[in-house]
């Protein structure tokens, strides 16, 4: 009770209000595929695995309206949880390990090959990390996509067609390129020319 009173008073004299003042309008709620967590002026939606926020930001704040008749309102309409495109790689050698970030709430998956001497093709990488992300100002049809951090490129179809292939080793020839095969005879010729 004291904590609630402290939070309420700390926002009373700022442009932000305690989230409880905006909650009275019932215009924000949890989602069946996510959990709404609120503290201070903010409410944030945490979606379950393979879902991300869609149609609005993950986090919103309760602000004091300049018009005293309107009192308080959310600075944005919070997003709702929508699924990412399901991915089933065709190559059985491609392994997917996923976990949800405790700080961002983003569900990330790292792809690797079962065989340690194999690489993912065509990206030619040992590992590849993607996350279930919605770009709520770009994505349509209420679906999210698999993307790398800070990128709008969609990897949904690409991942399904990846393969694991043996890493190609670079083999160097015993004689460096550009030197003659008869290197020893050249050395003797130089010694004779200089009288060594």
From TrEMBL:
Range of residues in the leader sequence: 1-17
The superkingdom listed in its UniProt entry is Eukaryota
Can you say what this protein is called?
Oidioi.mRNA.OKI2018_I69.chr2.g5083.t1.cds
Keyword Signal (UniProt): yes
| Annotated keywords | Signal
